[in-house]
C-alpha cells in the first residue's frame, strides 16, 4: 500500500490526512507536503494519522522536521492518533513528550495550549 | 543455512517487500501474532538503515536479510556491506545530505532496541549486521 495525503482547512488550522504506510520510501512525499504547506504560510498543522497502517523512524523524522519548520514561524504541529501500534513508536522514542497527540481532529483543532 | 534468505538492491522501495516477507516467515515459524507488528517494524528499521549505509558509501552490493527458524526461536539478521572506518561509526563525510535525515540512523536503532529484547549489532571493515531474535510458541 502506498501513502495517501489530503489537506483541508479548518479555521486557522490545516488538517493533513495521512493514510497507508509511512516508511523510507514514502516519507519523502509527506516531507514535501509539509514543506509546501509551511512555504505557503500554513503554520498550524494537524496531522491526522488515523488511517496510517505503518510508521517507522523515517516517518518520525519527517514529523520532527515538520515540527521544527512550523515552530520557526511560531506555529504548531498536532497529531491525531488512537492506534496503539502507532502510539507505541512515539512512546519508545520519547516523542510523546514532543508532539501533542489528540484523540480526534475536532479536539486537535480546538486545542490552544 | 537460513530458512529464507532475501537479497535486494539497496533501494527504499524494496524495504516494504522485506517487511512483508519477514512477517510472513515469522508467522509461519510460530512468532506470536501480537509480536508480528514489532517484527515488521524492527526488520524495516534494520533494512532502512542498511539501505542508507549502502547508498551513503556507494556500495553496489545488495542488502541481505536472513530469516532463521530455530528451535523455540526465530532470528532475523540484516547484513550490510558498507565499510566502517571504526566499528559502529558512519563513514566520514558520507552522512545524509539532507539535514533533516540526520539522526534517523540513531532513531532507527533506538526503535529496534526499544522493540526487541534480544538484539546484537556488529560492524566492521567489511560491513555490519543487526541480528534480532524472538521466541516462538510452536
UniProtKB/TrEMBL annotation, chain A:
<dbReference type="InterPro" id="IPR003658">
    <property type="entry name" value="Anti-sigma_ant"/>
</dbReference>
<feature type="domain" description="STAS">
    <location>
        <begin position="3"/>
        <end position="112"/>
    </location>
</feature>
<dbReference type="InterPro" id="IPR002645">
    <property type="entry name" value="STAS_dom"/>
</dbReference>
<dbReference type="InterPro" id="IPR036513">
    <property type="entry name" value="STAS_dom_sf"/>
</dbReference>
<dbReference type="GO" id="GO:0043856">
    <property type="term" value="F:anti-sigma factor antagonist activity"/>
</dbReference>
<comment type="function">
    <text>Positive regulator of sigma-B activity. Non-phosphorylated RsbV binds to RsbW, preventing its association with sigma-B. When phosphorylated, releases RsbW, which is then free to complex with and inactivate sigma-B.</text>
</comment>
<dbReference type="Pfam" id="PF01740">
    <property type="entry name" value="STAS"/>
</dbReference>
<comment type="similarity">
    <text>Belongs to the anti-sigma-factor antagonist family.</text>
</comment>
<protein>
    <recommendedName>
        <fullName>Anti-sigma factor antagonist</fullName>
    </recommendedName>
</protein>
<keyword id="KW-0597">Phosphoprotein</keyword>
